[in-house]
Amino acid sequence: MARMFGTNGVRGVVNKDMTVQLAMQMGKAVGTVFPGTAAVAMDTRTSGTMLKNALCAGLMSVGSSVSFLGVVPTPALQHYVKSHGWVSCGVMITASHNPPEFNGIKLVAPDGTEASRAQEELIEAKYAERIPAVDGASVGWYSESPGADQAYVDAIVSKVDAEAIRKAGLTVVLDCSNGASFRTSPTLLSRLGVRAITLNGNPQGEFPGHYSEPTAENLRDLASLVRETGADLGIAHDGDADRCVFVDGRGGYVEGDLSLAVLAKWVVAARGGGEVVTPVATSSVVQAAVEKAGGTVVYTAVGSPTVARRMMAGGAVFGGEGNGGLIFPDFQYCRDGAMSAAMMLECVAKAGPLADQIRSLPVYFTEKRKVACPDAVKEGVIRFVDTSTEGAVKDRTDGLKITSAMGWVLLRPSGTEPIFRIIAESRDEEDAKELADKYQTMVEGFIASLAIGS
Questions:
Q1: pTM of the model
Q2: How far apart are CA 395 and CA 101, in angstroms?
Q3: Which of 49, 156, 304, 408 could staple 403 via S-S, CB 3.0–4.6 A?
Q4: Beta partners for 366?
């Protein structure tokens, strides 16, 4: 059957792709592959209760039980699974940053990490089968388990220098995107002695304040309020709060690669060195910051489960992606928006304003392009560009990354769309554009030649 799980679960438009029938069959598949008790949670989307009920019905029908945590962030569910050895797995009903008409199902492995591709394949294979129900006497039980959100906040507070944060007397504007962090993040800031001004802090699944993707465009109100109130920092989450992005004290939106670089430098310096793991698409500013602090960078394919598992294998001290998804292994091996917020507060409290820390980093310029490309010829594009490029260092970790004296360019085929993504980076803005232009022309020319030949 076709692959169901993308880079972060199964997602689709509600009642079109993401239906109650799919959720119920998914519950039966998960309950069969991971029998026992599944911890289930959801974000604030209006369709969440409908899909949760169908998923739980599927789990219970094959004999698995359900511990329902309510509306909590994805990393709170992951912390619960990791902390309760009797839980067989976790299931989150969320579409993260997607618009409100979407919803999805994300699987959490028994150790609290995002499910591996091998585990997802087991679920997909079972989903395709006719899964029999158990007899009536063997149906699983259902219980509500409140308190996972508070336990999660308690654990975060124990992992940072809470006293230093309290003494700093920080003011923060917090944007919860009306998502799953509407309780946990305000509570966390209160526990850390931070004066919080909250935006979009109601559990409204239609995301009326702004869509849950924390982009610069969507966070204009946050940036404006930081400037108006003289706040030290702006903090924003996506819908399920596994990511966190920042606005500096001047109201400037901070690109994810820059916050990743700041925190990577902070963690590595505190540990006296260590390994940081991040995808090949991440800006070189992260490597520059890490190496200056005495650490090393290891690159992986795109995807937080891939990053997390490489961190586990190599004993990395920090990792993450340039989209605000940061992983703190001393806490848990998953993207964690609230932990990111708390660690940034400690960093600002001890090392000074975020804007000043960013100014100390080297400047890189990035160009991003998209080229339409049929799925069937994507590998052919990679081979053509690879054989046509000389005098450069090439990396096939994820697509093709070509590094030269000018900078680097990454050609990466989308796994969900018929497009090629081209990212070019250089210390010189014109060089970045020239690299992007060169390889965009090369890719488009090759695709056009195939169309003429056919």
A1: 0.94
A2: 38
A3: 408
A4: 425
> 385 CB contacts (<8 Å, ≥6 apart)?
400, 402, 411, 439, 442, 443, 446
Q: What is the mean pLDDT of residues 190-198?
A: 97
Distance between CA 86 and CA 231 in Å, rounded? 43
72 burial (CB, 10 Å; 0-12 / 13-18 / 19+) is buried
> Cβ atoms within 10 A of the Cβ of 230, count?
8
Percent of the chain with pLDDT over 90: 90
Separation in Å, CA 406 to CA 327, 366, 369, 410, 430: 31, 12, 18, 13, 10
Q: How far apart are CA 423 and CA 194, in angstroms?
A: 38
Between the alpha carbon of residue 162 and those of residues 65, 188, 194, 197, 317, the distances in Å are 37, 10, 10, 19, 20
The pLDDT-based confidence of 453 (bands split at 50, 70, 90) is low
Does the annotation count 143 as an active-site position?
A: no
Residue whose entry in the numeric block shows the structure tokens 């960013």 = 358
Q: Sort 305 into a burial class: Cβ within 10 Å, 0-12 / 13-18 / 19+.
A: buried
pLDDT digits (tens, 9 = 90+) for 15-50: 999 999 999 999 999 999 999 999 999 999 999 999
The alpha carbon of 12 is separated from its chain's Cα centroid by a whole number of angstroms, namely: 18
State the chain's mean pLDDT as an integer.
Answer: 95
Residues 6+ apart with CB under 8 A from 84: 39
Is 175's pLDDT higher than 60? yes
* H or E element in which residue 328 lies: strand 326-328
User: Which position has the token pair 């960078």?
Assistant: 297
- Compute CA distances 366 → 20, 92, 221, 253, whole Å: 42, 34, 26, 16
Residue type, 95: A
Look up residue 42 and give its two tokens.
Answer: 């959801």
Tokens of 251: 């109201």
**pLDDT by residue (tens digit) across 222-267?**
999 999 999 999 999 999 999 999 999 999 999 999 999 999 999 9
CA–centroid distance for 192 within its chain: 24
| Closest by CA position to 18, among listed 74, 122, 93, 124 | 93
Is pLDDT at 191 greater than 60 in this prediction? Answer: yes
Q: Find the catalytic residue in 64, 96, 177, 259.
A: 96
Residues paired with residue 225 on neighbouring β-strands, in sequence order: none
